[in-house]
Write a structure and sequence with these properties.
38% helix, Carboxylest/Gibb_receptor, Lipase/esterase, AB_hydrolase_3, 251 residues, hydrolase activity, AB_hydrolase_fold, single chain, alpha/beta, 6 strands
């Protein structure tokens, strides 16, 4: 697909972002190169919009390699008598990019709009840390958040996972891991935004005609097929989906 065809398919909101940035962002090079590009793009995009004000935003170090950022909305006096839902949030970035700052504005918006408590997770990244380190960190962060419901002011009966892109995959992976640990009852919902759940080479032949996004969006803004193949190769990918197969969950 050429650039003109891609232009026609992009949403007006995305075209507006490109105009404000003065460019069409794309990532290329090594995984570490793209990490820096991703960080720069996140900073430039975040600077375009004001940060929503919240009652508290706190960084918490759980272990030497795992940290979270908690977002608590400013609720009314009436709402203070009610415990809030808690979303455990996993950022995107192909498991190689991103941090607590890259989607800070989005987490603030979520916490303020609903309202709910957001626990954003800074999981270890490839290529320095191979899979399943990302899944293990995600589960450990969930466990910390669930065990600290009282500290957070959260309702233990309203915990859910949420993430986008690579984080959307982790939003699916964590419940699967918890099911294997006989803790599936802890998860009351999953919000997975544009996740990676089926590798292009694993699409069943009978369904390949319907699953063409990896080809039709090969040169999409920000994240290309070439970039994704670089990310896939740094994990290795099969460890992300290991428990999905063991639990008979399609991957």
């Amino acid at each position: 697909m050429d650039e003109l065809d891609m232009d026609k398919r992009l949403a007006p909101a995305w075209h507006r972002i490109e105009r404000e940035l003065g460019q069409r962002p794309n990532m290329s090079g090594s995984a570490l190169d793209m990490r820096q590009q991703y960080k720069q793009f996140s900073e430039e995009l975040g600077a375009l919009y004001p940060k929503p004000a919240l009652e508290t935003v706190e960084d918490v170090a759980i272990t030497k390699h795992l940290a979270v950022r908690t977002y608590t909305p400013d609720v009314t006096a009436k709402d203070k008598h009610h415990l809030l839902p808690v979303g455990i949030y996993f950022h995107g970035g192909g498991w190689c990019c991103g941090d607590l700052d890259s989607e800070d504005n989005f987490c603030r918006m979520l916490a303020k709009a609903f309202p709910l408590i957001v626990v954003s997770v800074s999981y270890r990244l490839a290529p320095e840390h191979k899979a399943p380190a990302q899944v293990r960190d995600a589960v450990d962060a969930w466990t910390w958040a669930f065990e600290n419901a009282a500290r957070l002011g959260g309702d233990p009966s309203k915990y859910f996972t949420i993430g986008q892109s690579a984080g959307g995959t982790l939003a699916f992976a964590v419940p699967n891991e918890l099911i294997a640990l006989h803790r599936g009852h802890e998860v009351k919902g999953i919000i997975s935004l544009s996740p990676f759940v089926v590798h292009p080479s694993n699409v069943p032949p009978a369904h390949r005609a319907a699953y063409k996004s990896f080809e039709t969006n090969a040169n999409a803004p920000m994240n290309t097929a070439a970039a994704m193949n670089t990310f896939y190769g740094k994990l290795p990918l099969q460890h992300i989906f290991r428990s999905w197969v063991a639990n008979k969950t399609p991957a």
